[in-house]
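TL;DR need structure tokens for one chain.
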Amino acid sequence: MTKARQHTRTNSHRRLLAATAAAAIVATLTAGCTKDSDDNKAAPSPSPTPSTSASASGSTDPQTAEKAKVLAAYDGFWAESVKAYETGTEKNTKLVYFAAKDALNDALTDITSMRKAGTVTKGSPGHRSEATALNMSGEHPTATVTDCLDLSTWQTVDRATGKVQPYPSEQPLRYIAVAEVELWAGRWMVVKMTPDGDRKC
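>> reply
TL;DR here they are.
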């Protein structure tokens, strides 16, 4: 894997999550393209995790409530992604409930690559996320989430042996990632992840 992919992994969730499998693999929708889509439509949205920065209370921002929904969707996206990477499959997760377009395609591609490489992840990344933009106009309102990702609590392990595969020495463990989120039929969904390994946090 090139240094550029390890650090910047521009424009895709695949390149971000491939960092967790960098020692083993070289890796990266249309909404509802997986078989599980219909099963997931009725899935409840998980509660926001403590990583969520915005709160619906104690703020004068008129967009606070909507931003909280955006962050809840972002947290749900990560919670389901972690499950998929830990088990080596998106089945029995609600990933398609929270991800679409590039974000979903990239995650599914990466899961397949890791499965072929015989690796899974253990633990979960830390987050310090904030809804930094919100535009409620247009057919699909949009939002931006800026997150400080912490990979120090997320490891890649060999599925057969359980041996931890260390990150490359030049891999930053904390850096900024930006998520593009869109509102589809009343539901916020992550459509693109852009990690920026050059912006440490």
